[in-house]
Specification:
The chain is mostly helical. The protein has a single domain, classed as MFS general substrate transporter like domains (Growth Hormone, Chain: A, Up-down Bundle). The protein contains 16 helices and 2 strands. The protein is globular, with a radius of gyration of 20 Å. The termini are far apart.
Length: 407
């Protein structure tokens, strides 16, 4: 009992517990989505693009999470957001038509994006800078384990037991909601090491971080929306096939994510991100050319492994940031991340109807832009040493663009 109480008073275990429940539920929604919308709602590329754009609207509005800090603590917001996501996913199977799927997707997405915003803020606040990369690798490993459980359950229950989409969605959402309730009572209410700013702002010295986040959002949408959609539409992957592919992705993350975190801490953010973006250029070009289903699956696994290295963007920000800026900037960065994410799925969904390969060439272009930005990261970034070349200074732009502080 004493050991259990010591776990409940450790904020790192709380972060790892939340890192477990989120993918346990969300992975079910994500793995079933393409097959569900094709089989039950007869979606085409344009409709799946629109659904994914709507899914990203709450991410675009993630900056509003900072205003919730005026009335709620970050820990409370994180748990309420997780609960909302679980409810949205539980309802998905009951509404297998266009408007219904749009509504449940937005509901789920509000919870998902508010949680991700607050979770990133808490992680960067509660962790020492020398331990953050390794801990984020551990978080990825925990997320991978949870996702493996989810995909394994899908494969067993739907492929072998014949469970319907409705039951699978209800099971995932219900289990997730029960775990969230347990987290509420099992862990202490932790105090913050510093009072966070409760207003929005853009700081000039964070401009490189903003740019990296923007192109990360643009690239990730192509991976999440169109790479997986290609597997179903072009190569006729079944629900079981998609689940096994996702399981393979997360086996790699489970095995290598903590090592990737330590490796990023060892070689530095600049080198890690340059390796990631150079690799992603090749992966996206490969998507455009691929005609073999096994090769496409290999590219998908490599793509997913490269995204684990995005830890370096977050640790770069932690090293250059004022500690009081973390919560507000987490919300603003999610909004920046989703500026492209709101528009790209719908626009590229239309492109997909005539030229699927062009979608992936555009993704390669985004990776080139990210590589150029990553080359401007200092070898040892710190506050006051945020970039190698400060191009915004030449443009004589304002130091920051604040909103009025609210008391």
């Amino acid at each position: 009992m004493k050991r259990f109480r010591s776990l409940g008073s450790n904020p790192q275990y709380f972060l790892l517990a939340m890192a477990f429940v989120m993918p346990l539920v969300f992975s079910v929604w994500n793995a079933l989505l393409n097959n569900f919308v094709v089989e039950k709602a007869q979606f085409n590329g344009a409709q799946i693009g629109m659904l994914q754009s709507l899914r990203e609207v709450p991410g675009f509005l993630a900056f509003s999470a900072v205003f919730l800090l005026l009335v709620l603590k970050e820990q409370t917001i994180a748990l309420v957001s997780l609960a909302l996501m679980c409810v949205g996913i539980a309802l998905t199977g009951w509404l297998p038509f266009e408007l219904g799927l749009y509504c449940t997707t937005v509901l789920m997405s509000i919870g998902f994006h508010y949680f991700e915003t607050i979770n990133q803020s808490l992680t960067l606040q509660w962790l020492d800078k020398n331990k953050t990369a390794h801990f984020m690798g551990q978080q990825l490993a925990v997320k991978s384990f949870a996702s493996l459980l989810a995909y394994g359950a899908i494969w067993l229950l739907m492929e072998w037991a014949g469970v319907s989409y409705i039951i699978m969605y209800m099971l995932a959402g219900g289990v997730g909601l029960l775990i969230v309730i347990w987290l509420w009572f099992a862990f202490d209410k932790f105090t913050q090491t510093s009072v966070q700013h409760k207003h929005m702002f853009l700081r000039r010295r964070y401009w490189l971080y903003y740019g990296l986040v923007f192109f990360s959002g643009a690239r990730r949408q192509i991976f999440m929306v169109f790479a997986s959609f290609m597997m179903v539409e072009k190569f006729a992957y079944s629900v079981g096939d998609i689940s096994l592919l996702f399981m393979l992705n997360y086996v790699f993350n489970l095995l290598f994510a903590p090592k990737i975190g330590r490796w990023i801490h060892k070689i530095g953010e600049q080198r890690a991100l340059c390796i990631e973006y150079a690799g992603l250029i090749g992966v996206f070009v490969g998507y455009a050319w691929v005609e073999n289903s096994q090769l496409a699956a290999s590219l998908y696994v490599i793509d997913h492994l490269f995204f684990a290295m995005a830890i370096a963007v977050k640790t770069y920000f932690q090293k250059i940031a004022d500690h009081k800026d973390i919560a507000s900037t987490a919300g603003v960065s999610f909004t920046i991340n989703h500026i492209a994410a709101v528009v790209i799925p719908a626009l590229l969904g239309i492109v997909w109807l005539t030229s699927p390969s062009s979608v992936f060439y555009i993704g390669a272009g985004f990776a080139v832009c990210s590589l150029v930005l990553a080359l401007n990261i200092p070898v040892q970034p710190t506050r006051g040493n945020e970039v190698r070349v400060n191009m915004l200074r030449w443009a004589n732009l304002p130091i920051e663009i604040p909103t009025k502080e609210r008391s």
